[in-house]
Amino acid sequence: MTDTATLPRPTNRDEDWRYSDGKFLAESAPEAMQTWSEIEVPAGETRCEILATGEGAVERLRVTVGKGARLEAFAILDKDSYRRTEVEVTLHDGAHFEFGGVTIGGGEATQEFVTRTIHAEPNGTSNQTVRAVHWGKATGNFLGRIEVVRDAQKTDAAQNFRAILLEKGATANTKPELEIYADDVQCAHGAAIGQMDEMAGYYMASRGLPPKVARKLLVQAFIGDAFVELADDGLREEMMEQALAKLDEAEL
Amino acid sequence: MLIIENLSAEIDGKQILNGLTLTVEAGEIHAIMGPNGAGKSTLAYVLGGRPGYEVTGGSVTFNGKDLLDMDPHERAAAGMFLGFQYPVEIPGVSNVQFLREALNSQRKARGEEPLSGGEFLKLAKEKAGLLKLDMDMLKRNVNVGFSGGEKKRNEMVQMGILDPQFAVLDETDSGLDIDALRVVGEGINTIMRDPAKGVLLITHYQRLLDVVQPDKVSILAKGRIVETGGPELAHRLEEEGYDAVMKEDA
Ligand SMILES: Nc1ncnc2c1ncn2[C@@H]1O[C@H](COP(=O)(O)OP(=O)(O)OP(=O)(O)O)[C@@H](O)[C@H]1O
Ligand SMILES: [Mg+2]
């Protein structure tokens, strides 16, 4: 298997390369881009997956979620080299897909989430929350494609992406793609990319918090959104700690 | 305790403070009054080290140390507290978490032991009670969704918990209803009326000064202190207005 992390790869500052370039990856890392892990969540069941725990640069998961079943997937991308996590979900009647992702890091890392949510039957719901925190020359991406087939009425699909760039050289991109063939459908998409709230930082400093501690509290609050639906308190805390440990490495 | 000498400062290249001189002794509550736009909040922010507020001249000495040389969080640890005219909302961070981290950061900087969760909650409960702020408010995110008056009361709860040596209170009374004004005023007395502490009390109204009786009153106009007197100066301002008083005394 080719290690994509070591491949020479155009950066997103090159005009001809767009983030989440599947075609580029398919040519340069053919094995990784042809492999899917597949799972099925039986009708009525709930399954919770923590992704991006392995060493591979590219991870691809394809899930079929049965009638009234629920898939929850959470991930942190925090490595210093290229990382891509793809999730393709097919939702049956009344099924739910919950996704919470955090990209965090500096250096020249590019970290991206690519999701494809197929609402194949009526009454399906999906909720995706991605938070990106970057510094240095790092990039965080979220490409979320939502497909609603003709008969999938009462679909409710929500996506929310927010990024904080701690330094000028960092970037974040998001591209929602909607393909909707049913008419009774709700699709909400929100995106915001900005800097750390300076006034909040100053207010915290005025109470005695050193900048590093203040920043950590603010980032903690920010990325917490991605894991609110993670029911296991212990696991949620571990994930928060993992992400915040990355922030501790940052020299800002 | 606080000696401000010939202080000049600008924001975005615009000069706001023009050689401001003012001394506050330990044990003193010093009221600052002045027209809108005179530079009162600017003075508060300069004392609090807010980024973007550039000191272009003069000095500020706090307990014998150069205040302007310290970072904002170092000023707090040295005992300086700034009560904001417009308290800031911090989504996702609870008051309790924020204040415990803040207090323990200050204690650490001073070489003191941190307070445990239990000790901190006890302290927070006591101070919230003093200001008649519901403990539930302290569990909520910092100032998020608080009414104007609740934000001001929350500032004073914070002051109670952090127990500073010196407080700069910027229009802490604005936005408070009549009862809340008394509660907050008495809170300021309880927390800050102390021979070892000092207060710069920025206000537009006599009604706060009826509760928190100032030892001195200064008028700040066009970026400098133009007059200092006793409590009677505030009464005269209330009756006659800035123009008349400043003309008479000129
Ligand atoms: N970012 C800025 N750029 C330029 N001028 C500014 C900026 N911030 C404040 N000022 C100006 O500085 C002056 C002093 O403002 P400041 O807020 O200190 O007044 P104040 O005395 O507190 O007034 P008030 O009684 O209304 O609270 C005002 O003229 C204001 O417009
Ligand atoms: Mg003001």
Automatic annotation (TrEMBL), chain A:
SUPFAM superfamilies: Stabilizer of iron transporter SufD. InterPro entries: Fe-S_cluster_assembly_SufBD (IPR055346), SUF_FeS_clus_asmbl_SufBD_core (IPR000825), SUF_FeS_clus_asmbl_SufBD_sf (IPR037284). Residues 58-222 form the SUF system FeS cluster assembly SufBD core domain. Pfam families: SUFBD_core (PF01458). PANTHER family: PROTEIN ABCI7, CHLOROPLASTIC. This is SufD family Fe-S cluster assembly protein. It comes from Aurantiacibacter sediminis.
From TrEMBL, chain B:
It holds the Pfam family ABC_tran. NCBIfam families: sufC. Keywords: ATP-binding, Nucleotide-binding. Gene3D superfamilies: P-loop containing nucleotide triphosphate hydrolases (3.40.50.300). Belongs to the ABC transporter superfamily. Ycf16 family. InterPro entries: ABC_transporter-like_ATP-bd, FeS-cluster_ATPase_SufC, P-loop_NTPase. It comes from the Bacteria. This is Fe-S cluster assembly ATPase SufC. Residues 2-247 form the ABC transporter domain. The gene is sufC.
